[in-house]
Task: inverse folding
């Protein structure tokens, strides 16, 4: 990450949860413009959707770090976030989290296996495999909390009863069900239903940085648990990016050695997914190696 990006992180450390009221207020009266093909199956009109992730406090110490989403590069797909107390130039149509590729290892039926149809996939703890698999993913623990908010109308509101499918690689950079070493495992994959406040929570481990990609997690949002059985029903597929300083701290832990080298060879600005803008995808992270981290993100859907 460049020094410019680091400066932007400091200037925007309250994140989209702080900026959302301003964005929504400024958005009223503007055209909703772009229709969303992803909602065609559900007959929903295009507009701005927002998911807010509330971070969980894991206890502080001298090593605790807090990082917030930075502004995207000028012209990025996500659009820049509004600085605290400043004006927002995020248009309604640009307020949704970018649609991204599910990648080659989604496990949602779009590329081979479909874990979404298996009994046990609806769970909050992703660290262990389920069903006949018994593997456990090792690594620095993380808690991922998402709050899905629908702002498809004049006012933002929590999207209760939606489903979020989260998946990511393990400490060695392998995706369960696909990589040869973990082809018989299904850990680091799971679905949760949003509660009345639009919240979901997952317990997992900090993913590796594998060659050619910035450290990230994948997720898909579905209208309901009933819909979360096939990629064909998804509302949105996207990815969250993890902050550089946190990655550097985690990758100093034994077991993440290869991630140190891989991280030095990529940046958010050169990553094939995030290079066109990541202001709505760069997660806020708090915590420490000793006590674990809380990963939080505002995810417009």
Result:
């Amino acid at each position: 990450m460049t020094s410019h990006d680091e400066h932007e992180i400091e200037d925007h450390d309250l994140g989209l949860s702080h900026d959302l009221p301003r964005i929504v207020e400024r958005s009223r009266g503007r055209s909703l413009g772009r229709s969303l093909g992803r909602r065609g199956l559900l007959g929903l009109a295009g507009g701005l959707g927002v998911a807010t992730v509330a971070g969980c406090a894991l206890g502080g110490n001298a090593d605790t770090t807090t990082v917030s989403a930075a502004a995207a590069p000028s012209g990025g797909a996500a659009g820049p976030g509004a600085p605290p107390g400043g004006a927002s130039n995020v248009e309604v149509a640009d307020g949704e989290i970018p649609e991204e590729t599910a990648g080659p290892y989604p496990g949602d039926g779009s590329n081979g296996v479909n874990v979404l149809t298996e009994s046990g996939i609806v769970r909050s703890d992703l660290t262990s495999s389920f069903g006949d698999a018994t593997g456990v993913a090792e690594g620095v623990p993380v808690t991922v909390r998402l709050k899905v908010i629908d702002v498809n109308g004049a006012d933002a509101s929590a999207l209760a009863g939606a489903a979020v499918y989260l998946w990511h690689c393990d400490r060695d950079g392998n995706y369960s069900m696909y990589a040869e070493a973990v082809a018989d495992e299904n850990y680091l994959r799971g679905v949760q239903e949003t509660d009345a406040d639009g919240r979901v929570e997952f317990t997992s481990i900090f993913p590796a940085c594998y060659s050619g990609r910035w450290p990230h997690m994948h997720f898909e949002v579905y209208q309901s648990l009933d819909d979360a059985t096939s990629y064909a029903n998804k509302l949105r597929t996207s990815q969250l990016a993890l902050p550089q300083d946190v990655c550097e701290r985690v990758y100093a832990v034994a077991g993440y050695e290869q991630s140190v080298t891989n991280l030095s060879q990529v940046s958010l600005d050169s990553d094939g997914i995030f290079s066109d803008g990541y202001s709505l995808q760069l997660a806020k992270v708090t915590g420490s190696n000793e006590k674990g981290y809380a990963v939080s993100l505002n995810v417009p859907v």
